[in-house]
Amino acid sequence: MIGRLGALADIVGPAPAVRPAAAGAWLGMRGWLLLGVLAIAGAALLLPAARAMRRRLARRRLRMLSGTLRAHAPERDVAALLPRVWSELRRAGVPAPQAWPAPARVLRQRLLYARRAQPDVLRALLDELLGR
């Protein structure tokens, strides 16, 4: 038996398997946990910034509309603009009409219940609410 094993001595066996590199700190459960925490923190920082930008853009659009009404008042159909104005006011963060100052509430009533809404009333309402 030993003779047979001796005859096989000149055959080279396979090299030992290479051990895989140790897993870094970023791989595995800790890495996923860190990624989740960073994603939540990023969302917590980005959502208020996006909300503030949305308010600023809505206020800018309302100011542009006020300027357009000032320049081209007779040509504008105010009744067609009102739904857009109400939604832009909500986006701009303007509180509900019940919390508006009394002059703004009167102007809103004039817009809602007039037979033909006047552009100067809408412009005055926007100036009152946006602080011009």
Notes on the structure:
- There is one protein chain.
- It is built from 5 helices and no strands.
- It has 132 residues and is mainly α.
- Helix 2 runs antiparallel to helix 3 (78-91) and helix 4 packs antiparallel against helix 5 (119-130).
- The longest helix is centred in the middle third of the chain and has 43 residues, at 29-71.
- The chain is rod-shaped and about 115 Å long.
- The chain starts with a helix and ends with a helix.
Question: Can you give keywords for this protein?
Answer:
mainly alpha
Short description:
The protein is mainly α and 132 residues long. The chain has 5 helices and no strands.
Total of helices: 5
How many strands, which pairing sense, and closed or not: the largest β-sheet?
none
Would you list the SSEs in sequence order as H and E? HHHHH
Instruction: Indicate the radius of gyration in whole angstroms.
Output: 35 Å
Helix fraction by DSSP (H/I, runs of at least 4)? 55-70%
- The pLDDT mean sits at 85
Structural class: mainly alpha
Low-pLDDT runs: none
What distance lies between the first and last C-alpha atoms, to the nearest angstrom? 106 Å
Q: Say what oligomer this is.
A: single chain
Number of strands: 0
Principal-axis shape equals rod-shaped
> What is the percentage of strand-forming residues?
under 5%
